[in-house]
Each structure stands twice: as structure tokens, then as C-alpha cells.
Amino acid sequence: MEGDASASPVTIKNIEKELICPACKELFTHPLILPCQHSICHKCVKELLLSVDDSFNDVASDNSNQSSPRLRLPSPSMDKIDRINRPGWKRNSLTPRPTTIPCPGCERDVDLGERGVSGLFRNFTLETIVERYRQAARAATAIMCDLCKPPPQESTKSCMDCSASYCNECFKIYHPWGTVKAQHEYVGPTTNFRPKILMCPEHETERINMYCELCRRPVCHLCKLGGNHSNHRVTTMSSAYKTLKEKLSKDIDFLIGKESQVKSQISELSLLIKETECNGERAKEEALAHFQKLFEILEDRKSSVVKAIDSSKKLRVDKFHTQMEEYQGLLENNGLVGYAQEVLKETDQSCFVQTAKQLHLRIQKATESLKSFRPAAQTSFEDYVVNTTRQTELLGELSFFSSGIDIPEINEEQSKVYNNALINWHHPEKDKADSYVLEYRKINRDEEMMSWNEMEVHNTSKVVSNLESNSHYAFRVRAYKGSICSPCSRELILHTPPAPVFSFLFDEKCGYNNEHLLLNLKRDRVESRAGFNILLAAERIQVGYYTSLDYIIGDVGITKGKHFWACRVEPYSYLVKVGVASSDKLQEWLRSPRDAASPRYEQDSGHDSGSEDACFVSSPPFTLVTIGMKKFFIPKSPTSSNERENRVLPMPASIGIFLDYDKGKVSFYDTDGMKCLYERQVDCSHTMYPAFALMGSGGIQLEEPITAKYLEYEEDV
Predict the structure, then answer these.
(1) Quick one: residue 579, left, alpha or beta (phi over 0 = left, psi -120 to 50 = alpha)?
(2) What was the pLDDT predicted at 263?
(3) Could you report the per-residue pLDDT of 496-511, keeping only the tens digit for each?
(4) For 147, how many CA atoms within 13 A lie in the half-sphere containing its CB?
(5) What is the mean pLDDT of the chain?
(6) How far apart are CA 607 and CA 544, in angstroms?
(7) Beta strand 234-236 with 210-212: parallel, antiparallel or unpaired?
(8) What is the structure's pLDDT at 662?
(9) Which of 155, 249, 399, 550 has the fewest CB atoms within 10 Å, i.e. is most exposed?
(10) Are 475 and 438 in contact (CB under 8 A)?
(11) What is the pLDDT, as a whole number, of residue 591?
């Protein structure tokens, strides 16, 4: 196995690029083979699974300190509901866990199956080559004996059966002649020990002895007899070894025979690189020249606009100064009035009349101006506002000449944001684009734009993770055909939820009434069946009869932090309530029999009377809002208008609930744009649960978390 360890170090060093893990960008460490046939470090696979799992559950970061203990209601029986606050309840094993990760090599999602990492083969061949590279890189670094007493001696050989390195003396001691250990396989000093027999990861006691041609992976006889490969075509390991080795040797010989052609093509590529660099610099210079021309035009227009504004300002100010001087002349002992006062001192009648006639006309004119004061000019410069809307749009779309690639269009209806962002777009010439680049950036509150983040995509949709809560993000996409790209699409602005998304399902064990409610197998959808049971009891229904609500809650509780979740209420629903309720209130609801004959019992008011208009609890232990008949009803409040037109809103397509446990506040959102519809204080002294109630026909669908969906990939031959 290690017979080629002495191969030329130069040859080994020349293949360094093939020995780098595409995930961590370091030399492979215990590489595993993914279903797509790419290799990745064992620790990198675990980290990818962990990151996907965190994204699936949308756990808050350690810095925000918003993670919360999750509790489960223990039992549907009333005597066990008292333990509703007891910590440690976890969701059962039926809850799906993510087994799909994005391959860093081909950037496609691959499914690891039920066994996850345990079902992957270790790439011992690649591991051996990496070890040869390490030895070539550290030729001067000796491998020390593992059994020597301090100080250890330099090892001279390694035992593949013992997985240890020995110096000459220790090897003789631990592998004496005439014993079984003397028959162990030993090689030169190494740190890479691999098993002599490859065992099946699904049946750990069985050795690999066959090769599945459909899945292109080694299997054991149990995999063929009754496992996942029972209906697949398999061949013997020796036959697969011979066939694949012949193909690989033939292809390598072909490439070696074309060495001169490869060198010629490398020289051609070097020339193309230089030509590309020269053409790129020329294109950059031309682009800068065009922008400089635009700058000059803008500078010229700026000078003209500023000059026109200054001229108008000077003209208006001069008029105001002239008018102000005229009015100053009306003051006593000043200007016109002062002159008239001097004329009045004239005693000669002829001279006085001669002067006073014209003066009197001026005085009359000044008197009239006092009665109807009008400024000599306007102070507003509304006519001088520069309208750059159209030019800004044109400059925003400034790009290269049409390259023959149509601009992609983001589909706003199919794009949404929840725990992650899902961006879908349409490209009229889909077959002409090799790939797409999705760009996104955060928009700060002061409208300051951050730098664009780029993601290369090979289809027309992408899930974007790790977005900050309660933030606006801009998305745009452009298409690529070879090295030519299209202009960017119009930007789509999405608002992320105000807190990390809270993951839960409907609880079918506590308070769930299976006679009235129908829960699907995934436990993310519930429907109210208002029909047969009510008809059977129809003779008891009289005037004032009040049908009771059927409650259902989430299977996970909240004891700290900020959390957000969303649901969709079916348009045909008659009456649905959504919100939060504390554990002690749930005990009261699920224990106390409700007086179904009382028309004055309102289950979400917290008291059994019609005095809701006169009494408001500032921080009740629950808050539920009503949705029905395609309307959203805002609860009555002592601090806001309770007029009908102010309390009845159109029903949102999706309703979000935001609970800030630490501040004791719950808010309800229209998730389209994350607009807050209603908020109030709530008593969070106990564990809080997502709560729902239905009456009559209705349905509630929990919003599904956005995760990277599995993509079909073509397996390499």
C-alpha cells in the first residue's frame, strides 16, 4: 500500500490543487465521498450539516442571546397538564431533520440519506496521497517512535496492523520472531493508517465485496440481498476494479500522449490572458472617458442651473431692498414723511401749493400701499427645483451595449422572506444563459447602501441565509453567457421578520379535539369540521346559542428571548383566532367546562360577562386576534379609536406573530412588507405558547420554513 511512498516529491507537489478540500481550502483530513462523488473533509461535512440544521431551526446567534429553552406539553390528560412548565420536553423523533447539504465542489444539494455522515465512505486512496504530499513537504521532519520512553527515537517503520510507528529496538520488542505480530504488515514511517479491509458503513460487520453500477459505490452482500441496492445491478469488486483501472489507465495514457498538444494550448491560453488584460485595460479607459464626458456635461449643467438661481435670487433681493427703502421713507422724520413735514413748514401759499400737489399724490400712493401690502417678489424657488427622476433611472440602468442576453426579471409573487429569503426570477431566454449572479445587500435605516454580496446560481431560484432580523434587503440578478453578462434586473426590496423564526408544529396531545379539528400528518395544518356533530345536536340549539371555540396550541413553549412565526388563514374561514397564551391560562381553558348555552361568554376576553367595553386588562396572560370572512379584526383598546372602520382591516395573505418575552409584548404583522397591524402588552410570567382557535369552517396553515431544496444531479461516470 505504501510501496510508492518514495515517489518523486516534485510529482507529488505538482498535484497540490487536487488535494485541497473545497470547503475549508486546506489539505484533506479524513476525506469522505459524497453521493455526487466529490470528496470533502469529515469535519467539514459535520459543519455543513450543523449550519443547515441551525438554518432549519433558525436558532438565534449567541451574540443576540435570543435562544430559548423549548418545552413540550407532557400529556393530554388534565392531571398531567400541571407539569406544563416542567423543562426538558423535546420534540419527538418523528420531527424531520435536515440531511441535505450543499456540495462545495459542484454547488448542488446532495442528500446524505437517513444515516447521514455514517453512511459515507472514507476516501482512503485520497488520504494516502495527501499523506505522501505531507511527507514530501516535511522531508526534514522525522516521525518519532510511539513506544519509546522519553526522549523518543526517530521511527524507522510503521505497523499497519498496530497503527503505530516504531524505532528498530521497539519494533523488535513488540514484534518478536515466532509470534503472530511478526506477521504484521509494516511500511516506512507514516502517520496515515488505514484499515486493510474496507467495511460497509450500513452493515459495519460486513466487508465490501461488490460494486453497485447504478449508485456507483461499493456495497456488501447484505446491501444487495435486502438493502437499498436489492434491485440494482451489481458486479464483483475485482471486475469493477479491473474495468475502472483499465479505463483510468487508458485515459491517462491518452492525456500523456497529447502532452505536446496540451503545452501548445497552455501557450495559447497565456497569449489569451495577455490579450484579455490589454483589452480589459482598453475597455476600462474607454468607460472612464465616457464617464468623464458625463461628468463634464453634469458640471456644465450644474453651472448653468446655479447661475440661473443666483440671478433670480439677486433680482428678487434687489426688489425687496427697493421696497424696503420705500417703506422706510414712510417713517417719521425720515424719507418721504420727513420731506412732507418740511414742506408743511412753508408759509408762502403759492410756493406751498406748487410743491404740495405732487407730494400729496405720492403720499396718497404710499397710503394705498399700506392698505394692501404685497411683497415685491416671491420667496419660493419652486420653479427652480431640478427634476432628476428620469435621469436617475437612466443612470441607474447604465450598462454596456446589448450583448444579446435578455435581462432577468425577479418574480415578486414567488419571492419571499421568512427564516431565509427565497428569490425566484424569470429569464425569457433561459437556454441562452449559462449561469446567474444573485446580488443582495442590506439597506440601513438612513438609506445608506452596503456593498453587494454575490452568489453564483445555475438555476432560476436561490435561498439566501444569514440575513439580519428586522432589516431591509435589496436583491437583483443578472445573467451570464460565457464571459458576457446582461444588465442587472430591477431591485426587489424585502423586509426580514423582526426576530428569528420560531420553529414548532401543532400539538395533537394537549387539548386537541379530534371530533371538531382535523390535523394533517405533518402537523402544520389544521382544519375545523363544523358539520355533523352540530347537526346531531341541532334540537338543542335555541336563540342565543353560542358555539364554543376549539383550541389547538404549538408543541414548543417560550421562556425567554424574541421570536417570530407566521401562518396563513384560509379565505373561507368563518372565525379563527391566533396569538399567544400562557401555560396557566391553557390549564384554565382546557380544564374548565365552557357554558355553551351562554351568549355572553367570550373566550378571548378573559372574563365571563359582556363588560368588555368597560374593562380592559393592561397585561392579560394571553392575546388573540380574530380573523374571519376575509377580514382582520383589531381588538378593542382604551387608547385608540374603537370605531368599526378603524378596527376592521382586509385579511393579510400571511399573518405574523412577534413575541418579545422579556419585554412582555406581542405584535401582529402583515408579512407582506412586515407591517405591524396591532400590538399590546401580555403577561409573560409563565411559559408562553403559540395559540390558535377555530369556530365553524376554517383552516390554518403554518408558514413553512424556507430551506434549500434537493436538486437532482447528474452522477459522473
Answers:
(1) left
(2) 87
(3) 999 999 999 998 887 7
(4) 19
(5) 78
(6) 18
(7) antiparallel
(8) 92
(9) 249
(10) yes
(11) 62
Task: Tell me the pLDDT band of 47, cut-offs 50, 70 and 90.
Answer: confident
The CA distance from 531 to 550, in Å, is 14
Q: Measure the CA–CA gap between 23 and 44, rounded to whole angstroms.
A: 6
Rounded to an integer, the average pLDDT of 40-57 is 76
690 CB-contact burial (10 Å; exposed 0-12 / middle 13-18 / buried 19+): buried
247 against 333, higher pLDDT: 247
Does residue 519 contact residue 550 with C-beta atoms inside 8 Å? no
CA dihedral 43, 46, 51, 56 (to 10 degrees): 180
Q: Considering only CA atoms, which of 590, 575, 577, 571 is closest in space to residue 530?
A: 575
Cα gap 286→379, rounded to integer Å: 45
pLDDT tens for 375-420 read: 888 888 888 888 888 888 778 767 666 556 788 899 998 899 998 9
Instruction: Show the beta-strand stretches assigned E in 118-257.
Output: 121-122, 157-159, 164-166, 186-187, 210-212, 217-219, 234-236
Return the top range by mean pLDDT from 4-8, 194-198, 254-258. 254-258
- Residue 655 pLDDT greater than 90, yes or no: yes
What's the CA gap between 652 and 647, in Å, rounded? 14
Cell numbers found for residue 407: 435581462
Q: Higher-confidence residue: 335 or 409?
A: 409
Burial class (CB within 10 angstroms; exposed 0-12, middle 13-18, buried 19+) of 321? exposed
Can you tell me the distance from the alpha carbon of 533 to that of 341, in angstroms, rounded to the nearest whole number? 105
Contact 377, 315 (CB under 8 A): yes
In total, the chain counts a number of residues equal to 717
Cis peptide before 151 (omega within 30 of 0): yes
- Cα Rg for the chain, rounded, in angstroms? 40
CA atoms within 13 A on the CB side of 42: 12
Half-sphere exposure of 365 (CA within 13 A, CB side): 10
Supply the DSSP symbol for 207: B
Cell 503545452: give the residue: 263
- As given in the structure block, the three cell numbers for residue 230 are 436489492
**Residue ranges in 558-677 assigned as alpha helix (H):** 583-591, 644-647
Cα–Cα distance for residue pair 503/483, rounded to 1 Å:
42
Distance of CA 89 to the CA centre of its chain: 29
Collapsed DSSP state (helix, strand, coil) of residue 472: strand
State the virtual CA torsion across 84, 88, 94, 95 in degrees, nearest 10.
90
Predicted structure pTM score:
0.53
DSSP string, 260-298: HHHHHHHHHHHHHHHHHHHHHHHHHHHHHHHHHHHHHHH
- What's the count of helices (H) and strands (E) in the chain, helices before strands? 13, 33
pLDDT given for residue 593 in this prediction:
43
Q: What is the pLDDT of residue 654?
A: 94
Ranking 135-144, 161-170, 595-604, 648-657 by mean pLDDT, the lowest is 595-604
Contact 367, 326 (CB under 8 A): no
Question: Which of 93, 90, 104, 95 has the alpha carbon at shortest distance from 47?
Answer: 104
Q: Which residues contact 131 (CB under 8 A, 6 or more apart)?
A: 190, 191, 192
What is the residue whose three cell numbers read 488584460? 277
Take residue 416 and report the three cell numbers written for it.
Answer: 419571499
What values do phi and psi take at 105, rounded to 5? Answer: -80, -50
Give the C-alpha distances (Å, rounded to integers) separating 616 from 5, 605, 624, 635: 82, 9, 14, 11
Where residue 476 falls among pLDDT bands split at 50, 70, 90? very high
Distance CA 122, CA 39 (A): 9
Dihedral pair phi/psi, residue 700, rounded to 5°? -130, 130
pLDDT, residue 132, reads 77
Q: How far apart are CA 275 and CA 294, in angstroms?
A: 29
Q: Residue 619 — very low, low, confident or very high, per pLDDT cuts 50/70/90?
A: low
Provide the 8-state DSSP code for 204. T
Q: What is the torsion angle, in degrees rounded to the nearest 10, for the CA atoms of residue 680, residue 683, residue 686 and residue 688?
A: -10
